DNA sequence: CGATGGCTTGACATCGATGACAACGCGGTT
DNA sequence: AACCGCGTTGTCATCGATGTCAAGCCATCG
């Protein structure tokens, strides 16, 4: 094992003080070209690399951001992580990831703590826990940006998808194609994301003047297996739906194979979350596309702004979703004539309905921000 | 912003020295129950959390492992990362991930350096660069485990999949179902993984007494789009294949939609790498399953062993693959009668052909290890 | 010619924890 | 009573970098 090379070794070889080496390493201008050259030569000769741990201790903060997600095996979070990592890398920051695990939201505080004690400069958290009041103290020291869901019990920066608009858009799409019995398939209602998508579903029904039929709302399916079972109950009920809005990927991974297995590909489907091969099925699956890359980058950038200005008010960034028509969502209900139209273009949803702010930005990668007052933080 | 709470603050409140607090925090036995209780009370009162950066500086090593992969957006690496992260968490280690990017293997040394200067305790690297001689110095200080591919120009711990056996198994499976014109679709040949799978393909052909037909070998497709184009050339050639071994997921994501789009689902396909929905297509896609979780965990455990014993000889762990018959790989060639049999069971490949060691382990998650002499490291 | 000021450079303390070692107190031994 | 030994606790230096401040040097200016 080679010995560790430190500033002092370089200083000794270059016959200067450690401080001068530090100046050269940090690009301080107050060093004469001659000394600078001597030091750089010594650095090269010894292969010196500054010890970032020591630097972090001294300056009181690391150049690492922490990221807490539910599961890296989930493609949504994987792509989100990828985007965060890229954005961080561009800024010279490293990323520590930790996953909480699908079934154990109660571990979230522990995971977050384990990153905080490592003195991360900031955190990006996809919240699972019911309350985030436990962060009230920590959040003052370490900036936190929440993604995907709003934290409860704390005011903070956040990046959200417009779940309400998405649920509305998906449902309306099916209604526009003539369906009148549209089912909602979703996971636990204590998940705010599911709640918002369901609210969007209801809003679309209401806008269309349709009554709600609770027998068409199947929630609580936490896994593909449970979603499959829930979908079977829907299909086998007395008045089955002609169209289904599957409100997340796990549900779709239960629903779609079921429909194919039963030969029931006549049932119209819109899925929240795109998934690989969704466009190779027959019919290809119409999806609401989430764009985790856009969300991840927006979260990273929100965090960077926060690092640059710790006192600015908290902001919420809303990322638009888009509907990608591929066939399954454009199937007509049984007995209908030809579908009224065939969508070919991507439809953008962005009505800012989750938030106070409104603007007209509609591009795929565009986002909108809205300030929050800091009042009420505790 | 609350002030940072340090050991000294706790010491002051508990009326002991900082050292005693340190002893309590680290569970040192040489503290009387009375003082221990007083200190713990003070810790609780102040909400003290030890600063791991300071500890790391003092003890000379962090409790963080670095992971370098090609892209987190790739489900294989995402699941691998997930497994590494879980294993690390169980050992109280954090994980820093960095991705190199699909198209720029030359960035690998920079990425690795950026983790080394952060004093990671160890590294897990999915190599992309052509040579890893640049690690010869660093590798003596920081243990490195390579995954997925063997490093070049250095001897080190590694975790590999048995690519040769996998290529052999996939090809043999198609030959067993009566095919005589089996094509190979793969990415760049400078990728050792592709080379090994191709070697397996050739071994199976040779074992079957078939001549090689270079017009059936399509390599160099780095993206799904290029793979699609390469597959089109295969199908449109003068003597098209009746079966195709698609040697990685990107190739399959080009090939499979092409076959479906053209209505050529009569062409038999075996895909290396499973992918979501592969079993919902008609026919479902027969795959060689990689099991990134097993690979990731094996890599993490190899690294942990290394951390516990820095002087042990380097070892290579080989992870078995399995063939999952689902339909597309069992299609008969045109003109054949009924297929001879329908495989229902999972087939395990583990002949250790990449390595000197042999054993009979065959369970899904089993691995085999073989020691390497350290000779030849430079 | 001496004072002033700007620039380069270095000495020293410091970030927060822990290792080495010493001091201390207490009980048991001879 | 003096001594020894053991277990508890504290002092001090240290990990490797950087912030503070001042010394040293040279040039310019009154």
Strand order in the sheet with the most strands of chain A: 2-1-3-4-5-11-14
Overall pLDDT score of chain A: 85
Structural domains of chain A: how many: 3
Question: CATH class of the largest domain in chain A, anyone?
Answer: Alpha Beta
CATH superfamily of the largest domain in chain A: Response regulator
User: Count of DSSP helices of chain A?
Assistant: 12
Query: What string gives the helices and strands of chain A in order?
Result: HHHHEHEHEHEEHEHEHEHEEHEEEE
Shape of chain A: elongated
Unreliable spans of chain A are 339-346, 350-366, 373-378
Q: Please describe the biggest sheet of chain A, giving its number of strands, its sense, and whether it closes into a barrel.
A: 7 strands, mixed
Assembly category: homodimer
Strand content of chain A: 15-25%
Approximate helicity band of chain A = 25-40%
Fill in the CATH topology of the largest domain in chain A: Rossmann fold
Rg of Cα set of chain A: 26 Å
Count of β-strands of chain A: 14
Structural class of chain A: alpha/beta
């Amino acid at each position: 094992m080679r010995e560790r090379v430190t500033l002092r070794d370089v200083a000794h070889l270059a016959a200067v003080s450690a401080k001068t080496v530090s100046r050269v390493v940090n690009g301080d201008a107050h060093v004469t070209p001659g000394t600078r050259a001597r030091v750089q030569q010594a650095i090269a000769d010894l292969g010196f690399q500054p010890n970032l741990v020591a630097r972090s201790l001294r300056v009181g903060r690391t150049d690492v951001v922490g990221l807490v997600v539910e599961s890296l095996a989930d493609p949504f979070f994987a792509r989100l992580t990828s985007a965060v990592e890229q954005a961080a890398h561009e800024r010279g920051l490293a990323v520590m990831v930790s996953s909480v695990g699908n079934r154990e939201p109660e571990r979230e505080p522990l995971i977050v703590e384990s990153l905080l004690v490592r003195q991360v400069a900031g955190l990006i958290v996809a919240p699972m826990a019911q309350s985030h009041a436990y962060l009230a103290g920590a959040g003052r020291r370490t900036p936190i940006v929440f993604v995907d869901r709003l934290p409860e019990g704390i005011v903070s920066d956040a990046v959200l998808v417009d779940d309400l608009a998405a649920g509305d858009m998906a449902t309306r799409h099916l209604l526009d194609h003539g369906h009148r019995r549209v089912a909602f398939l979703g996971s636990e209602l204590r998940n705010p994301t599911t709640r918002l998508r369901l609210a969007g579903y209801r809003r679309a029904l209401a806008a269309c003047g349709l009554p709600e039929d609770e027998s068409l709302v199947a929630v609580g399916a936490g896994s593909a297996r449970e979603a499959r079972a829930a979908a079977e109950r829907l299909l086998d009920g007395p008045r089955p739906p002609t169209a289904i809005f599957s409100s997340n990927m796990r549900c779709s991974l239960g629903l779609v194979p079921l429909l194919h297995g039963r030969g029931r590909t006549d049932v119209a489907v819109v899925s929240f979350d795109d998934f690989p091969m969704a466009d190779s099925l027959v019919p290809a699956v119409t999806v609401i596309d989430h764009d985790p890359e856009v969300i991840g980058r927006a979260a990273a950038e929100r965090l960077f702004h926060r690092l640059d200005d710790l006192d600015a008010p908290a902001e919420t960034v809303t990322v638009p979703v888009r509907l990608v028509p591929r066939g399954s969502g454009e199937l007509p209900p049984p007995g209908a004539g030809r579908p009224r139209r065939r969508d070919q273009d991507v439809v953008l949803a962005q009505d800012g309905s989750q938030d106070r702010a409104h603007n007209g930005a509609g591009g795929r990668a565009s986002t909108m921000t809205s300030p929050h007052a800091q009042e009420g933080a505790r």
